[in-house]
Design brief:
With 369 residues, this protein is α/β, with parallel strands linked by helices. It contains eight helices and 17 strands.
Length: 369
C-alpha cells in the first residue's frame, strides 16, 4: 500500500495498538493530505463505548468539509467509516462537539490539513478546553505552539471561552496560514531547567482557595527535587464571561536553557482533594524532567505526523516511547513513505531513560502555493 492514488483505498484497523480516537485522527488527516481514499474498521474497538463519539464525529465532519470530501458511516457509535478526500480549502471551518469533547483533539486532526490549503484558515472549535484524556488548551498554546513553530508554521489561538467536563461549552478560534513545505526539526539537546511556572485555575462557583491549595502543594512537591529555582504558579479565578460551567485544574511548565518546554498537568474533579491535583501535576512534570528527553510524553505523539510530512530528517529526544506514539508512527509509516527509527539514547548517564525518534520525512509540497 504505497500512497496509491485512484481507486485503491487504504485499509486501517482501528482496533490495534492504542486502539482509540488517535488512529482515526492520524489516518484521516493523512488521507486528506495525500488524496488517499480510506477505510477505517473496528473504530475504538477496545473502548467501553466503541465506535465514534461526538468528538470524533465532529472532527471527521470538519475534515470532510475542509476538503469537500465524502464520508460514509459518519454516525455516533459507528465502527466503520470510509472517507474519500477532495481538495483542501482554506477559509472558516467550524466544529462543535456539543459535549466536553476536547477542542485540542479537534485541532490535532485539522491542523496538518489546513497547513496545505490554498489560503489561510480559521478553525472555530467548540467543546472542552480543559478536558480529561486530552491536552489542556494551555498546553497547546504554550508547549505545542512553541515547538510547532520549529517546523516553520505559525498559528494563533484565541481562547474565547473555557469549557469543562461534563458540559463543555468552550470556544477557541485558531488562525493559520498555509505553508509551501514543513522544515524538519531537531530537538535533542535538553539543556538545564531555567524556570518553572504555571497556572492553577478555578472557574464557576469554585473558590479561589482551591487554586491556591493546588499551587502551593505543587510548589512544595517540586521543591523537594529542585531547590534553587524560583517557581511561580499563579492561582487564577477564570472570569465568568470567559468560562462556561465549573472547573478546576493546574498546569506547570519547565523551560530550559535550550528553549525546550516540558509540562505536567492535572484536573480537579468532585471529591478529589486539591492538594492531590497539585501534586499529580508536579509529579508528572518531575517524571518528564527525569528521563532527560527534550520533549515530554504528551508532545511525543503530537509531533509524529509533522515529522512524517517534513522535508528531511527530524530527530527528537524523548523519554520511553508511549503507546500513543508507537501508534502514530505505525499509521504514519503505513500511509506515507516516511521512515521512522527509534533508538535508545546512549550518551546519557545510566539513570536516564531517553530515546531518539528519527524520521526521514516525505517533504510534502503544497501544490496550491
Amino acid at each position: 500500500m504505497d500512497g496509491a492514488r485512484g481507486r485503491d483505498r487504504a485499509e486501517v484497523d482501528g482496533g490495534i495498538m492504542e486502539g482509540g480516537g488517535q488512529i482515526l485522527r492520524v489516518s484521516t488527516a493523512l488521507s486528506c493530505l495525500l488524496g488517499l481514499p480510506l477505510r477505517v474498521r473496528k473504530i475504538r474497538a477496545g473502548r467501553s463505548q466503541p465506535g465514534l463519539r461526538p468528538q470524533h464525529l465532529s472532527g471527521l465532519e470538519m475534515i470532510r468539509d475542509l476538503c469537500e470530501g465524502q464520508l460514509e458511516g459518519g454516525e455516533i457509535g459507528s465502527t466503520e467509516i470510509t472517507f474519500t478526500p477532495g481538495k483542501i480549502k482554506g477559509g472558516t471551518h467550524i466544529a462543535d462537539t456539543k459535549t466536553a469533547g476536547s477542542v485540542c483533539l479537534l485541532m490535532q486532526v485539522a491542523m496538518p490539513c489546513v497547513l496545505f490549503a490554498a489560503s489561510p484558515s480559521e478553525l472555530r472549535l467548540k467543546g472542552g478546553t480543559n478536558a480529561e484524556m486530552a491536552p489542556q488548551i494551555d498546553y497547546t498554546v504554550m508547549v505545542f505552539k512553541s515547538i510547532a513553530e520549529k517546523f516553520n508554521f505559525m498559528f494563533d489561538c484565541d481562547i474565547k471561552k473555557r469549557g469543562y467536563y461534563p458540559q463543555g461549552g468552550g470556544e477557541v478560534i485558531v488562525r493559520m496560514s498555509p505553508v509551501k513545505q514543513l522544515s524538519p526539526i531537531n530537538l535533542t539537546e535538553r539543556g538545564t531547567v531555567t524556570k518553572i511556572y504555571g497556572r492553577a485555575f478555578v472557574a464557576g462557583v469554585l473558590p479561589i482557595k482551591l487554586a491556591k491549595e493546588m499551587s502551593s502543594a505543587a510548589v512544595r512537591c517540586i521543591r523537594k527535587e529542585i531547590r534553587d529555582l524560583y517557581i511561580n504558579i499563579q492561582p487564577v479565578q477564570e472570569p465568568d464571561n470567559q468560562a462556561f460551567g465549573n472547573g478546576s485544574g493546574i498546569i506547570i511548565f519547565a523551560e530550559t536553557s535550550t528553549g525546550c518546554l516540558l509540562a505536567g498537568s492535572s484536573l480537579g474533579k468532585r471529591g478529589k482533594n486539591s492538594d492531590k491535583v497539585g501534586i499529580e501535576a508536579a509529579e508528572m512534570l518531575l517524571k518528564n524532567l527525569k528521563h532527560g528527553g527534550a520533549v515530554d510524553d504528551y508532545l511525543q505523539d503530537q509531533l509524529i505526523i509533522f515529522m512524517a510530512l517534513a522535508n528531511g530528517v527530524s530527530r527528537i529526544k524523548s523519554g520511553p516511547i508511549t503507546l500513543h506514539t508507537q501508534t502514530a508512527i505505525h499509521f504514519a509509516e503505513q500511509l506515507t513513505k516516511a521512515k521512522f527509527t527509534v533508538t535508545k539514547s546512549e550518551e546519557e548517564d545510566s539513570t536516564k531513560d531517553a530515546y531518539i525518534i528519527e524520521c526521514q520525512g516525505i517533504g510534502m509540497m503544497n501544490s496550491s502555493l
